[in-house]
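Working notes for the structural subgroup meeting. M.R. asked for a predicted model of this chain before we commit to crystallization trials. I am recording the input and output together here so anyone reviewing the notebook later can reproduce the run.

Input as submitted:
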Amino acid sequence: MKIVIVGTGYVGLVTGVCFAEVGVETVCVDIDKNKIENLKKGISPIYEPGLDELIIKNLEKGRLSFETDIAEVLDGAEMVFIAVGTPPDEDGSADLKYVLDVAHNIGKYMNDYLVVVTKSTVPVGTANKVKEAIKTELNNRNLNIDFDVASNPEFLKEGDAINDFMKPDRIVIGIESERAKEIFQRLYKPFTLNGHPIIFMDIPSAEMTKYAANAMLATRISFMNDIANLCEILGADVNMVRLGIGSDPRIGNKFLYPGIGYGGSCFPKDVKALIKAGEENNYQLRLLQAVETINEEQKSILVKKLLQFYNGNISGKKIALWGLSFKPNTDDMREAPSLVIIDKLLKNNAQITAFDPASMEETKRRIGNIINYADDMYEAVKDADALLLVTEWTEFRLPDWDLIKNLMKTPLVLDGRNIYDATEMKERGFYYYCIGVKTN
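Returned structure, recorded in token form:
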């Protein structure tokens, strides 16, 4: 079985590599020639645990290849997955330019039946636009080639994407024909042998499922952050509250961790797009509007605590940041809370030294050298007036606190992920503040 994946960003590359891993002949296509040349050498453009090894393995096995021209790879393919970006437009809606560009190219070069699948996160109704784009090009060629469109949204967590793809909670597929259904069943058979369910549905429902899933997770995060802030005012411990409500099976314990807000490529973009979809259809998604507002305010909470500690004046203070990426095990800086924190610290004339195990190069690409970058976590805290824990990388969980206290000018720790024990920190002589708990 041969498939084509268009787009070698996060979703497209993980999808292509994992299909190749189970024996599917997979061709990944991207217009970025430098990226493709590097991928042919086994060099991945993204940081994702386990991905590099699978790329090299499947290149060597001949199941995976990378090309720049879609016209040269469609022959013999049964499916084409569109996995290009859908960045937010100026009004918050999803920009479908790249998706529809691919659809037009498919129509220009296809010569036999294909299932054309949107893997990118797209608004309800996108499949119809893809279908019309393909029909337009076929009509221009005076051809009447049968094809199907389908929606197959991804549910990958950055940092654990390989495991998510190979052992999915569910596989959601929106289809319009039995022919397309049969092809999907063959494609996903290696994944369903272990009992992972395929949920077939209509295309609009599949398109909405992706947005609804991300919006629900974002809502849980903002809910807990709102509760955490009230806990702090009232003297309750949000960590205890989280355990108490998370033990209710109707609620569960996932995505109930208070912190400094969500970021990344999915939640912010998808919440905005869903709000915009509501507006375009004269419906106000008030809950999601609140989710977005809470999240943006939460990104500033560590700086507020820092300013409060220093009576509103941190000018000239040396601030250490541990973590820059929006979550551990990725170098993704899209909508990262660290960028908001850095901006607010600099506006208050603070000096910043940061360390992150994976994302410092990406941070430099985005903001340059307006902050200092340390070679390790301990160099970052040297002579610091405060340490802000921004991303909960594993290596930050059990640091040498005695060394850190000796290195810092002021033993002040602001924990944006609640990974340290307040009692222990106080016993070690630190001023310690976290989220949703009254500490010092």
